[in-house]
Amino acid sequence: MASDRWPSARSRHDWVDSATMPHPQLLRDMALFVEVARRKSFSQAAAALGMPISSLSRRITMFEASVGLRLLDRTTRKLALTSSYGEAYLAQVSRLVDEAQRTFDDMMAVAKGPSGFLKIAAPPDFWVLRHLSGVITEFSALHEHIHVHVDLKPAPVDLVGDNYDLAVAIEEPRETSLIVRKVAEVENGIFGAPSYLAERGAPMTPLDLERHQVIVPTQGTSATWSLVRGEETVAITVGGPLSCNSLSLARRFAVAGQGLTRANIINVDNDVSTGRLARVLPDWTLPATPVYFVTTSRLLPAKARSFIDFATKRLATVLATASGESRRAGARPSRLAERAALSF
């Protein structure tokens, strides 16, 4: 027979705990599970968390037992989420863990401002060394409690595996799970060395590019370029004996006189001003190169949000100014380029 008596003080406390309060270890295990699932590796997760692999594996096993579901498939070579429950559970738990971390960071930021170790990946391009470095310097001066570390790495970057807070990218990542924020655009043009232009002549129209050696900065012997002048658009197939997967290397080939190449006008600004390269068809532009900030989540710690908010405004302004200066410099063809055009 059911009792109408209200539980004693002790039993009321136990009832509230069991009915409404999650066990503290459950929340910690959720965070451990998210770390392992995102990295797809017990060893990498353990290293990032600063705990033994055996302890981490045991906690995940106990966590699976507590929820009554198998969330991870483990083999000697591979760790993967189970398709039945693991993937769906990760999506739900990730939001909880990220929100909890953000709440903690926000409280710390209120107390003493954004702080911590901010790890950024960026491409090893000239504009990064010249312009992004200045933005980071300004940010660092304003946030003494944030230590900023920058790795220059070509794409693609493993944000989770290498423990980056964010990446600066000039190509939109293929992984649909990543969060991409477009920051700015940089104009592209076509450039060649004076020695090459003296030998082959400067193109006067987009169609002239068909008879030129073009260094293609992608894998393959040819590429299709879309050139724009006002409302006029011309698609042209270009190619040559050299190709590579690096814009920086393509620029070096061009400086060596191996052909024409497309380039970010900021990246070759110094080459143009010193006469190592000259812009051809300056009235025509190629599709602009977008600059992105890439993160693994929309819920970011205060240190990352502070940098993105600051850098988005400053970098857009800096790159727009630099592009304008480079455009004006590149629009003045060198005398050698003019003579090369007239001789052909």
What can you tell me about this protein's structure?
It is built from eleven helices and eleven strands. The chain is an alpha+beta fold and 344 residues long. It has three domains: 9-109, Winged helix-like DNA-binding domain superfamily/Winged helix DNA-binding domain (Arc Repressor Mutant, subunit A), CATH 1.10.10; 112-184 and 291-323, D-Maltodextrin-Binding Protein, domain 2 (3-Layer(aba) Sandwich), CATH 3.40.190.10; 186-288 and 333-343, D-Maltodextrin-Binding Protein, domain 2, CATH 3.40.190.290. Strands 3, 4, 5, 6, 9, 10 and 11 form a seven-stranded mixed beta sheet that branches. Strands 1-2 form a two-stranded antiparallel ribbon. It has a two-stranded antiparallel ribbon with strand order 7-8. Strand 1 (72-74) and strand 2 (79-81) form a beta hairpin. The relative contact order is 0.13. Residues 1-21 and 340-344 have low confidence and may be disordered. InterPro entries: LysR-type_TF_proteobact-type, LysR_HTH_N, LysR_subst-bd, WH-like_DNA-bd_sf, WH_DNA-bd_sf. This is LysR family transcriptional regulator. Keywords: DNA-binding, Transcription, Transcription regulation.
